[in-house]
Write a structure and sequence with these properties.
Length: about 240
């Protein structure tokens, strides 16, 4: 069986749609999604609709926690909108109560076993869902994921994909589907093949132009939301 691991979709259904087409071509049977369905971009309802065609499991990300804090009146929605764009505001507007509850009440991490292969899925790290792990993070910190008895530890959050082998397991940061911070117009994700426990790091191209048009209409003053989509890609 092949499992696709995705993270940080951030309401970007344009990218997710292409990833899921690629997943079908690669005969993926199941999805694991590591949080941050919402935030930045604008179509979490379409994201969930696309995922509903699959067998999948989730954990929540920091943007689901931020969404929960808004709904609990712990922080102002305007604060998030100013920093991240209108993604959270549109999630509250577009998602049903049931969908919001599903996302904000998801666990911070989850252990899953497939054919005797134990997998730990998290958003930021195995010890802190909001801890950023990058390719250049100190190896002593990366080795902390070896404290779990899982064979594979999958994380996202930093939007930078990489792999790190510990003495006890393999840590894989799957990067971001919806907002790569390495190269715009590319969705990063991973396939785990349980036949031989191999990892395939995937890069799926998608057209950023429709999303750029959306940003210009919805968040014209947030320059970051467009610049990150164009980063390190001369063709965009």
């Amino acid at each position: 069986m092949k499992i696709a691991i995705l993270s940080d979709i951030h309401g970007n259904h344009y990218a997710l749609s292409q990833v899921l087409k690629d997943a079908k071509i690669n005969k993926v049977e199941r999805l694991l999604v590591l949080g941050d369905f919402v935030g930045y971009y604008y179509y979490p309802e379409r994201v969930l609709s696309l995922l509903d065609n699959w067998d999948y499991e989730i954990v929540r990300g920091n943007h689901e926690v931020l969404l929960q804090r808004v709904l609990n009146d712990e922080i102002e929605l305007s604060t998030l909108t100013k920093k991240y764009g209108s993604g959270h505001k549109l999630a509250i507007k577009k998602l049903t109560h049931k969908q919001l509850e599903y996302l904000i009440n998801a666990p911070d991490k989850k252990e899953i076993t497939f054919d005797k292969v134990k997998i730990l899925i998290c958003h930021g790290s195995s010890w802190d869902p909001n801890y950023y792990l990058y390719p250049n993070t100190d190896k002593k910190i990366l080795n902390k994921t070896g404290d779990t008895d899982a064979d594979f530890v999958f994380v996202g959050h930093s939007h930078h994909p990489f792999m790190h082998k510990n003495d006890n397991n393999i840590l894989i940061n799957v990067g971001s589907v919806g907002q790569s911070r390495q190269r715009g117009g590319v969705a990063n994700w991973v396939i785990l093949n349980l036949l031989d426990n191999s990892i395939e790091v995937k890069e799926t191209d998608y057209d950023i132009n429709p999303l750029i048009s959306d940003v210009k209409k919805i968040d014209p003053e947030n320059e970051y939301l467009i610049s990150v989509l164009k980063r390190n890609n001369s063709e965009k």
